[in-house]
Specification:
5-stranded antiparallel beta sheet, 676 residues, alpha+beta, 20 helices
């Protein structure tokens, strides 16, 4: 392509570049102003960009050195003056960074450079320089420093233990909270594999979670972690993968929250439920849990002995399907009363598996939640000839919450002295459903349940005074529900000790609260079942010490139930009776199966009583035998009646025998035996 202009077209003077205009545009884009001072004539020249940087009008006269002092901090001006003097006298080049205080009240951070201009003889005839506006760069640098400091402060003040590790699993940073949580000093762990802290039996779970994290999933699992004193504690772990721009894994960020109290509560609940179920399944009564709609949700295996039905033939069906038509109306009326929270005892006829009807005594009691809501009922059925009173209980929970939804970490928020949320961690979405931007700029107290706001407001003053506060309360979720959280708040202080805000950590304890309530309700259920029967019910440990006993058992020995706990039969019965009872207990524990035995013992009234005891091994959640449970019925009256009957037969002058339905001989007196 030719560089010559086309024929008939000549360059226009209007389109020729203007060097001065181009220089001014370059200075504007680069935020660089220039100046020139002729030392011989005193003439001063400032570029338009320099005037703009100083906040002066484009046509303003450049200020003198004395006038320029008004734009600067006196200390910085005192540093600049020698630079200008040395440039003018000895031709020395200099540079200084300083603040400009504009007339409109704004400030700019600049870097000034000065150099000498020499004539053909080499003498300094003028000085000139440039001024670079670095305000945006300084602001960005300051913001980055503040952001890094704030995030580190948030991590260091979170109640969770936060760890950073490389792709090889070696720890490169550990938050100070590990000292309060597990007793370690962070410096003792940096450089060690994170896996060293996990219990050996839990390594498999850790590796499985890491594989899921590498596939793009969030690592969430529970593991036992080792404390500095060598003990182990359960912790909920939440980890995220750190990737480079090309997708390469460069490390992991992991947060640990101790859940020892929750794990203990779960184990206590499991043991309590196992004990209750074991007692119910070995009771001679039929025990059933029935919903508010009258549907059987669970029923004990003893139902087969009483009415011939297998449990799975009844569960899921309505009770009225098994009640005699003439008794249905009365049952429905009583069910309405129980829905109102009242207990009842009554008689009705139940249909057996062979189509016949059996009279049973029924004891029913509602299952009531803490807020008074009726959740269902526990019903106990016994044959009227069986002498077993109903077992009833209060054991249900309005809702069973999942423990620590998806094992999410704490929610961490930065809150101003005025109570406004100015930053909140992304985990708020997992825990409460909120998107962080929906909460930033809003008062933190607005999330509190009305019943908790008084405590939240009261805790604000100590925090502003520099104290760390902690409380439990309910926080509103995005769907307008409320969740229980443990709130730990620490003050944020400046270098001079002034409180500039606070960091608040919200730990979801909804599952922990639910677990506490379930343990209490399960305990009340067990106690209610114990006290609803006329039989003696007990549980002992492997050494024969009473763990629990109902009031009927206490009446056998003439002591309050509280005094029986911890005692053995040797301390409650005479030596002969205690030895026999202990022998039966040991046989049941060794055999591992339930037994029904007859025991002749002397009770608190000083009289010998015949008892029929059904005993079964008491097992822990791992299936190990740790004691014995039993139900004991006083059958003395029945034994006496049988003896009197036999005595009457023996006194008859004529032969007499007793036959069963199959014509087998059950008993014959002496006269009948003599003529046999």
């Amino acid at each position: 392509m030719s560089s010559q202009p086309a024929e008939g077209i000549r360059p226009s003077a209007a389109t020729a570049p203007d060097p001065a205009a181009e220089l001014a545009e370059i200075q504007r884009l680069a935020h660089v102003g220039s100046w020139h001072h002729d030392l011989r004539t005193g003439a001063r020249r400032w570029s338009a960009e320099l005037l703009r940087i100083y906040g002066l009008a484009p046509d303003a006269q450049p200020p003198t050195r004395a006038e320029q002092a008004a734009f600067m901090d006196p200390a910085e001006f005192a540093q600049m003056a020698p630079l200008l003097d040395r440039a003018a006298t000895v031709g020395e080049t200099g540079q200084i960074e300083y603040w400009i205080n504009r007339a409109d009240g704004t400030t700019r951070r600049v870097v000034g450079r000065v150099e000498a201009v020499r004539d053909e003889c080499g003498d300094v005839c003028a000085v000139r320089g440039t001024v670079l506006d670095v305000s945006e760069l300084v602001a960005t640098r300051t913001a980055l420093t503040d952001s890094e400091a704030r995030y580190r402060l948030l991590a260091e003040n979170a109640s969770d233990v936060v760890m950073s590790m490389g792709p090889d699993g070696i720890l490169d940073w550990v938050s100070p909270s590990i000292t309060d949580t597990l007793g370690w000093q962070p410096r003792d762990l940096v450089g060690r594999p994170a896996l060293d802290l996990a219990h050996p039996d839990d390594h498999k779970a850790v590796f499985a979670a890491r594989e899921g994290g590498a596939a793009g999933l969030l690592d969430q699992y529970e593991v036992r972690v080792r404390a500095a004193d060598g003990t182990w504690a359960w912790a909920a772990v939440r980890a995220r993968i750190i990737r480079a721009a090309d997708g390469t894994i460069t490390g992991r960020i992991s947060s640990w929250r101790l859940i020892e109290a929750e794990a203990t509560a779960r184990r206590a609940l499991e043991a309590s439920e196992a004990r209750y179920r074991l007692l119910a399944e070995h009771a001679t009564d039929v025990v059933a849990r029935i919903s508010t709609e009258g549907v059987v949700e669970w029923i004990s295996t003893s139902v087969t002995e009483h009415v011939g039905w297998a449990p799975d033939q009844i569960v899921g069906r309505k009770v009225v399907e098994f009640v005699h038509p003439d008794d249905v109306g009365r049952l429905v009326a009583l069910q309405g009363d129980m829905a109102g929270g009242r207990s009842h005892r009554f008689e009705l006829r139940l249909r057996t598996a062979d189509g016949s009807w059996k009279h049973v005594a029924v004891a029913g009691r509602p299952i009531v939640a803490e807020d008074g809501t009726v959740l269902g009922r526990v019903s106990s059925w016994r044959n009227i000839d069986g002498e077993v009173v109903a077992r009833e209980a209060l054991a249900a929970s309005e809702a069973r919450y999942r423990l620590l939804a998806e094992n999410a970490g704490d929610v961490v928020a930065s809150i101003s002295n005025e109570g406004i949320i100015d930053w909140i961690s992304p985990s708020v979405t997992d825990v409460l459903g909120w998107i962080p931007d929906e909460l930033i700029g809003t008062p933190a107290v607005n999330l509190s349940h009305p019943d908790s706001r008084r405590a939240v407001v009261a805790a604000r003053a100590p925090t502003l005074s520099g104290e760390v506060t902690r409380l439990e309360g309910r926080i509103r979720t995005r769907d307008a529900a409320y969740r229980w959280v443990d709130v730990s708040t620490r003050p944020i202080t400046s270098a001079d000790g002034v409180v500039t805000g606070r960091v608040s950590s919200w730990r979801d304890i909804e599952a922990e609260i639910a677990a506490r309530e379930l343990v209490l309700e399960s305990k009340r259920l067990l106690e209610a079942v114990f006290e609803s029967t006329s039989d003696a019910v007990f549980a002992k440990d492997a050494d024969g010490r009473y763990l629990v006993a109902n009031s009927v058992a206490a009446s056998f020995v003439g002591r309050p139930t509280a005094e029986m706990v911890g005692l053995t039969d040797a301390e409650l019965f005479n030596a002969t009776d205690a030895a026999g009872i202990r022998r039966d207990d040991l046989r049941v524990m060794a055999g591992g199966t339930a037994e029904t035995v007859d025991e002749e013992i002397t009770l608190a009234d000083g009289q010998m009583h015949w008892t029929m005891a059904t005993k079964a091994p008491l097992r822990d959640t791992a299936g190990r035998v740790i004691g014995v449970v039993g139900v004991v019925r006083d059958v003395t009256e029945r034994r006496v009646a049988e003896a009197r009957f036999r005595e009457t037969l023996d006194r008859m002058l004529e032969g007499c025998m007793v036959l069963d339905r199959s014509w087998r001989c059950l008993y014959l007196n002496d006269m009948a035996a003599a003529h046999r």
